[in-house]
């Protein structure tokens, strides 16, 4: 039976929200498992879409910023350098530097989930109501953690569509 795991070492609502992030992280890893490097960097038939590598990089990049926002700290320079900018000079999702493989991209994402977990251990139910600056507006910590989960699921749909297109293209050329 599917359910979200409620941990005893976190406040109940914090645990529920963290569990949703963790579940989506595991789902993300399972849908990209066993991808070849070519599939990972496939940009669609017309080469105009974001590759699965770009999407994985983007999810980790956005989420690490949420973790530091929730911590109440500015993201450190070394983290900023490691994850790079949110967009390239054209306002598009950047390519991950040096075309890292799937293992490296998943390792970066897992680092983000681990960082979130360590923050969630410290949060109380009341902390979830605290406002955070977000996109010229404000959001609560509760919304921020939920958004991390939702954002991952959103891009998982893009990854699934690209996987399907990749398989159709490979089948077409193998005939």
Automatic annotation (TrEMBL):
It comes from the Bacteria. This is DinB family protein. Residues 27-159 form the DinB-like domain. Pfam families: DinB_2 (PF12867).
């Amino acid at each position: 039976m599917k359910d979200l795991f409620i941990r005893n070492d976190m406040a109940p609502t914090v645990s529920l929200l963290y569990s949703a992030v963790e579940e989506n992280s595991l789902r993300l890893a399972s849908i990209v498992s066993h991808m070849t490097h070519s599939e990972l960097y496939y940009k669609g038939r017309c080469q105009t879409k974001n590759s699965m590598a770009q999407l994985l990089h983007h999810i980790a990049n956005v989420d690490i910023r949420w973790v530091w926002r929730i911590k109440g700290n500015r993201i450190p320079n070394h983290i900023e350098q490691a994850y790079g900018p949110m967009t390239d000079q054209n306002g598009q999702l950047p390519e991950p530097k040096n075309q890292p493989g799937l293992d490296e991209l998943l390792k970066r994402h897992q680092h983000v989930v681990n960082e979130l977990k360590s923050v969630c251990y410290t949060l109380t139910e009341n902390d979830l109501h605290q406002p955070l600056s977000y996109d010229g507006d404000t959001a609560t910590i509760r919304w921020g953690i939920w958004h991390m989960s939702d954002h991952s699921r959103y891009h998982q749909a893009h990854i699934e569509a690209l996987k399907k297109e990749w398989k159709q293209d490979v089948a077409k050329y193998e005939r």
